[in-house]
Design a protein that fits this description.
This protein is α/β, with parallel strands linked by helices. It contains ten helices and six strands. α5 crosses α10 and α6 packs parallel to α7. The N and C termini lie far apart (about 90 Å).
């Protein structure tokens, strides 16, 4: 049968014109070469653990599950990972709000959201028993003459905090901590929601707290440090804000560093803005020109420390 097939193929080949015979010969050569290379690669995989086995090993390593202790960001976890983390003792949910607001010509409008995400992740890692929910990007505020601010009302914030807290409890969390990086709604809205839900769920062994130290107390402590070291005071878009962003902005997308040297706005005296006829109207209340990443790290670390200590007191049964 094979001999008859070979004879038929040979006969057909000889009947072709010279051009067709050349083309067929080239195709056969390509097929033979390809088969030879594949056979050699297969032999290499089997006998030498060559490139193919290295690729398989790399894929296996990259698909290995991350250690549960590294997982603290709810939206980047699967339900299986959340369930495992809860069973392992990560039963505290951190709900952190940011904000979308103009912050001067040198800072992006998402300042509060970048800072909030970095802070709440650091707090979760410092605590060791917490997972943080997606940062809420809007807080009570009002759009201004300068574009860049998108705000919500106190009532809407309260409804959202209540809903997110109760959803976190339904997911299995036993403690919920409310925090914010923007002043809108603080402390009233956060306190009211936390106390309301704590009364509702405490009989079931579930607690809800408002961590206020991460905002006002930590901010005041850093402002005191600035005053003691001869830095100018401010309230908005000033040295404190700009330094934190310079510290956190690793890829240079959130800070316009070429504008920091000229980032000065209306002066602040005794905690009050002094707006005169020569006001720059640039969104800065204070002076950001001496901002540095080193000062930003100091401010950032203060906030993590203040928050972690207060939350640990909450979880230990105190206020």
């Amino acid at each position: 049968m094979k001999s008859r097939l070979a004879t038929s193929i040979r006969s057909g080949f000889l009947r072709m014109n010279s051009g067709d015979r050349i083309l067929v010969s080239m195709l056969v050569a390509v097929i033979v070469t390809s088969l030879s290379l594949n056979a050699r690669a297969q032999d290499e995989r089997v006998h030498t653990g060559g490139p193919a086995s290295l690729i398989l090993a790399a894929e296996s390593a990259s698909s290995a599950p991350r250690a549960q202790s590294d997982l603290v960001e709810f939206e980047k976890m699967t339900w299986v990972e959340v369930k495992s983390a809860l069973a392992a003792g990560k039963t505290t949910a951190l709900i952190y709000t940011g904000g979308t607001e103009q912050r001067g010509p040198q800072l992006a409008n998402g300042y509060h959201n970048l800072v909030a995400h970095a802070q709440v992740e650091a707090i979760a890692r410092e605590l060791g028993n917490a997972i943080f929910m997606p940062v809420l990007p809007y807080t009570p505020n009002d759009a201004e003459a300068l574009p860049g601010t998108i705000g919500i009302t106190n009532e809407l914030l309260a409804a959202m905090l209540e809903r997110i807290t109760e959803e976190s409890i339904l997911n299995g969390f036993r403690n919920v901590i409310l925090m914010g990086d923007h002043g809108g709604g603080q402390p009233q809205v956060y306190e009211e929601v936390a106390k309301k839900l704590d009364r509702r769920y405490r009989p079931n062994g579930i607690r809800v707290f408002y961590c206020d130290q991460v905002y006002r107390a930590a901010n005041d402590a850093f402002d005191q440090y600035l005053a003691q070291h001869g830095y100018p005071p401010g309230l908005h878009g000033y040295l404190y804000d700009t330094s934190q962003m310079m510290y956190l902005d690793k890829d240079n997308t959130w800070v316009r560093r070429d504008l920091v040297s000229s980032a000065v706005g209306d002066p602040v005296v005794d905690g009050k803005v002094q707006i005169g006829p020569q006001s720059p109207q640039n969104g800065i209340l204070g002076d950001a020109r001496r901002s540095t990443a080193e000062l930003g790290k100091l401010a950032f670390d203060m906030k993590i420390d203040y928050a972690a200590r207060q939350i640990r007191r909450f979880l230990a049964g105190g206020y």
